[in-house]
Give the backbone structure.
Amino acid sequence: MICRLEHALVANISNEMLEYAGMEVKTMIKDIAIALLFVIVCLAAGILGSLYTAPSIPTWYAAINKPVFNPPNYLFGPVWTFLYISMGAAAFLVWKKGFEKKEVKFALGLFAIQLALNAAWSPLFFGLHWLLISFIEIVVMWGFILWTLLRFYRISVPAGLLLVPYILWVSFASVLNFSIWWLNR
């Protein structure tokens, strides 16, 4: 009788452990899918921008005056790819803290605004050649990035830290944008 109880108990525990492990695997797969979705959305913003950037690099951008600290063109693609992946990872970490929470929704709303501003900058600068307007826009974007970074940091320290390279690069890009406007006014 005791042997049967032990066997039943072991079988029950084993079944529960398998169910739990199955739930963990399902959760992990869902998390990976959602993390990839965040990254893809961020990369899509970059792809949208590149539709305006790529044709202008060998033509208009090559012909305008640029400051001595202008980085080589080949650097922008890898830097932005890294930044978009980091941004997507940061957004996922915040989402993972519970989208039902008001502060998470607010932070992700800020994230969406700064991402939209990010996507709008390339058409303004490279597409329309509105150097001053694009500078004003990037300053507004910088403010939203900072606000997003601070909100993310409150919710998830790693998420906030993942946005530090982004705000540093946009800070540099802002100075570069201003300098290009100044040199070509």
Remarks:
- The mean pLDDT is 92.
- The chain has one domain: 2-183.
- The chain has six helices and no strands.
- The radius of gyration is 23 Å.
